[in-house]
Every structure is written in structure tokens, then in C-alpha cells.
Write a structure and sequence with these properties.
- By secondary structure, this protein is of the alpha+beta class.
- It has three domains: 204 residues, GAF domain (Beta-Lactamase), CATH 3.30.450.40; 89 residues, Orthogonal Bundle (Arc Repressor Mutant, subunit A), CATH 1.10.10.10; 51 residues, no CATH class.
- The protein has 17 helices and eleven strands.
- The strands form three sheets. The chain has a five-stranded antiparallel β-sheet with strand order 2-1-5-4-3, with helices on both faces.
- Strand 4 and strand 5 form a beta hairpin.
- Helix 15 runs antiparallel to helix 16.
- GO terms for molecular function: DNA binding.
- This is GAF domain-containing protein.
- InterPro entries: GAF, GAF-like_dom_sf, OmpR/PhoB-type_DNA-bd, WH-like_DNA-bd_sf.
- Keywords: DNA-binding, Transcription, Transcription regulation.
């Protein structure tokens, strides 16, 4: 075959190819061997599916519904290009009795639209918005495999790993963030054998590129011109951007600005003193000296007193994570979470906020049971010893490496304290 990403070479008999693939699929599920003519991209995907613990008789699970789904979709970057995707693919899907689907970077379906009868049939295998179609959840399929390999791909009938999906054929292409190159999700067309034609793969690839082009043209949502941006997650010294200038704050100034940003109404000197210092012997004179230095750093008119308050609105990365968590957009919240808030800070109020934010996010991750999000947290510096997260990850992705790491953590917990 000239193009390994295409399911059928020109002139191939789709009926005969389906029979051959079914025999190959049975051979693989029974003996672990992949006979020809299974494509390399499919064989590798089948192997990944087995390593992820997927069985050929499994089914997709629906993870987001109703308000949670709506909140997550509203926050997702691909929401901005859905009108374009519908314009380019919607009529084709409806007229051809196909489905247009868009998933996120973790293979979770966000939109599934198209011919009503086809949607009803697809619904019986949970090919619906909010369902997880990652390779690690349901094995080989076009949207899940496209985001796994970062390439456009067709999946034809029995190339699907789960038997329930084998009557279908699909083609999908990933959509990348034009600025960072990160995979945002994939555009998919799902239907009958006719989609094995090379044109369907070229079509979804063109739609994905058009979506990337539109994302590049769209002005990213930014705070108003008079709004400062505060970045304090995952760093001991916060960055404050205001009026076209960016300044790195000292550790103490970082703590003060974080607290004042959370209290636009202001804090009294006594309130700030209690929030910042564990040592009750620290005097108001010490605090006033810090505030005087901060006033010079921020510039004239930006720090008022009686009570102490910032005179410009501040948008912080802490507030972004809190908003997304409150809306149920856990993936978006996890994406915005760059690490613990001012991790070296011992200021009592900052430590409480740091713990509350981390606990809220990790609780949502554990409850959501998303293996990719759990893995991201578990392998981050702040999560490498998080026993509860590793247990949750092992429950949904019981690989040998994960089970081994969990065993080490549990043995350390059970060991007597040597000190």
C-alpha cells in the first residue's frame, strides 16, 4: 500500500478485506500474533490497546453528561472552531448518513452530530458526547488513534479493536494548537465502508488544517488593557504583567500580591500581618517596610492603603483554576495548573490556599477516573508520592509500571518510622 495511513488501496475489495481483517483480529486476540495484511499503524495500536488493558468485548463509558459536559465544552479551545467544522463537514455527514465527531486530546467525545438514524445506531455503542474513546479506553479507533499518534488515520471495519465497533469505518485528523503544537483533539467522520475511500482521510485532514488556521487568526481572550496578569502557580517568585511590563516579584512581594489579588476590597495591616507571618513577634513596622518596597516595584498609584489594596484588577492563574473547577471543567483546570501555589512560601494564608487548591483539583481527578489526567498528576513532581492518586490510577490503568510504583508507595507507608 502506498500510503500506510489509508485503510484500503485502490481496487481492493472491501468485503474480502473485512473477512481477512476479522481472521487477523481473532488470531491476535487469541495468540497475540498479527498476521498480514494488517497495517503497521493498526498492529501497533492493537498492541497499545492490550497493554492498556482493553478487551475486545469492551465498550465505551460516558464520563461527562449534562451540565458537566456543557461546562467542559464551553471552556475547550475547539469550541471556537465548531461553526467552521460544522460548515465544512456537517452537510457531508448528514447527506451521507455519517457522523461528524470532535474529541479532545484525551479521546473524549465533545460533539457528535449528523444523520439522526446513524446517531441512534452509534448511541448503542456509546459513541455519544461525553464518552471516552481514547485507545486506552476502547482500543483502536480513528479519533482515539489520531490523538495517540498525532497523525490523520483511517480505521476500517475489523481494524477496530473492540468487536462492537467493527461494523463501522472512520477517518480522523488531529487538531493542533497553532502556537504550541500541542494536540487539542481530533476531527472525525464515522459511518459505513464508503469512508475507506482516500478522499475521506484527505477531507478530515483539510478540515483539521482549516480549524488550526482559524485558531491562529482568532485573537486569544486576554484581560482588559487595565488588568494585570499574575502567574504564581508552580513558581516561588510570581510574575506580574501590567501596562505592557512584566516584573518578577520577590518571594514576600509574591505572597502579598497573591493575597491582595484575592481580596480586591483590601486587607488591613493587622489582617496582612496575620496572613503573612507565623512569628507573632514580627512588627507592623516590618510589614510597612515591605509594602513601601512593593509600592516602588509596582509603580505609582497601584498600591493603596487603609486598607491595603491593589488599584488595578488582577487576573491570576489561581483564579483560572478555581473557576474551571467550579464549572466542572476538570481537564481545563488541570491544564491550567502549573504546580503548587508559591511552593516555598510559609505564609499561613498562602499555605492554606495552596493546600485548598491542590486538594480540590486532586479530588476532582480521583473522582473523574480519567487515566491520562491521573497519570499527568502522578508523574508530576508534586504528585509522585501521592498515594491516593496512584491508587486511583492503578484502578483505571493497571500496568506493571503503575502497580510497581504503587507497591513501593504502600510499602513505604507501612514501614515503621525510623526517626
Amino acid at each position: 500500500m502506498t500510503d500506510p495511513w489509508l485503510a484500503l488501496e485502490p481496487g481492493a475489495d472491501p468485503v474480502e478485506r473485512t473477512r481477512t481483517l476479522r481472521r487477523a483480529h481473532e488470531a491476535f486476540t487469541e495468540a497475540g500474533t498479527v498476521p498480514r495484511p494488517v497495517r503497521a499503524v493498526v498492529a501497533e495500536s492493537w498492541r497499545r490497546s492490550v497493554r492498556a488493558g482493553v478487551g475486545p468485548d469492551g465498550t465505551a463509558s460516558v464520563e461527562l453528561m449534562d451540565g458537566d459536559l456543557g461546562a467542559y465544552r464551553a471552556e475547550h479551545p475547539l469550541a471556537q472552531v465548531m461553526p467552521l467544522v460544522r460548515e465544512l463537514l456537517g452537510t457531508f455527514a448528514a447527506d451521507g448518513e455519517h457522523l461528524l465527531a470532535v474529541c479532545d486530546a484525551h479521546g473524549r467525545l465533545l460533539w457528535v452530530e449528523g444523520h439522526p438514524a446513524t446517531r441512534r445506531r452509534a448511541g448503542r455503542m456509546n459513541f455519544v458526547p461525553g464518552a471516552r474513546w481514547a485507545e486506552s479506553a476502547v482500543g483502536t479507533n480513528a479519533p482515539g488513534t489520531a490523538v495517540a499518534v498525532g497523525r490523520p488515520v483511517q480505521v476500517f471495519t475489523a481494524e477496530h479493536f473492540i468487536r462492537q465497533v467493527q461494523p463501522w469505518t472512520c477517518a480522523a485528523a488531529p487538531v493542533h494548537d497553532p502556537r504550541t503544537g500541542r494536540v487539542l483533539g481530533a476531527v472525525d467522520i464515522t459511518g459505513g465502508d464508503g469512508l475507506a475511500h482516500p478522499h475521506s482521510l484527505g477531507f478530515v485532514q483539510a478540515v483539521a488544517r482549516a480549524a488550526e488556521s482559524q485558531l491562529a487568526l482568532l485573537t486569544p481572550q486576554r484581560p482588559a488593557a487595565d488588568t494585570a496578569e499574575l502567574t504564581a502557580l508552580g513558581r516561588d517568585e510570581a510574575l506580574l504583567s501590567a501596562g505592557g511590563h512584566r516584573v518578577r516579584l520577590s518571594r514576600r512581594h509574591s505572597e502579598i500580591v497573591v493575597l491582595l489579588a484575592r481580596h480586591p476590597e483590601g486587607l488591613t495591616g493587622d489582617e496582612l500581618l496575620c496572613a503573612l507571618y507565623e512569628d507573632e513577634r514580627v512588627t507592623p513596622v516590618t510589614l510597612r517596610a515591605e509594602l513601601a518596597r512593593l509600592r516602588r516595584v509596582l509603580g505609582p498609584g497601584r498600591l493603596a492603603s487603609r486598607p491595603y489594596r491593589l488599584t488595578m484588577p488582577v487576573e491570576s492563574d489561581v483564579a483560572v483554576v478555581e473557576r474551571r473547577l467550579g464549572a466542572g471543567a476538570v481537564t481545563a483546570a488541570a491544564t491550567a495548573y502549573a504546580g503548587p501555589l508559591l511552593p516555598g512560601s510559609q505564609a499561613p494564608a498562602v499555605a492554606r490556599l495552596r493546600q485548598r487548591l491542590a486538594d480540590g483539583l486532586r479530588t476532582a481527578l480521583i473522582a473523574g477516573r480519567d487515566p491520562d489526567l491521573l497519570a499527568d498528576w502522578a508523574h508530576a513532581p508534586w504528585g509522585e508520592d501521592d498515594l491516593d492518586v496512584w491508587r486511583a490510577l492503578a484502578a483505571v490503568r493497571p500496568t506493571a509500571a503503575i502497580r510497581s510504583r504503587l507497591a513501593v508507595l504502600e510499602s513505604e507507608l507501612a514501614a515503621p518510622d525510623r526517626w
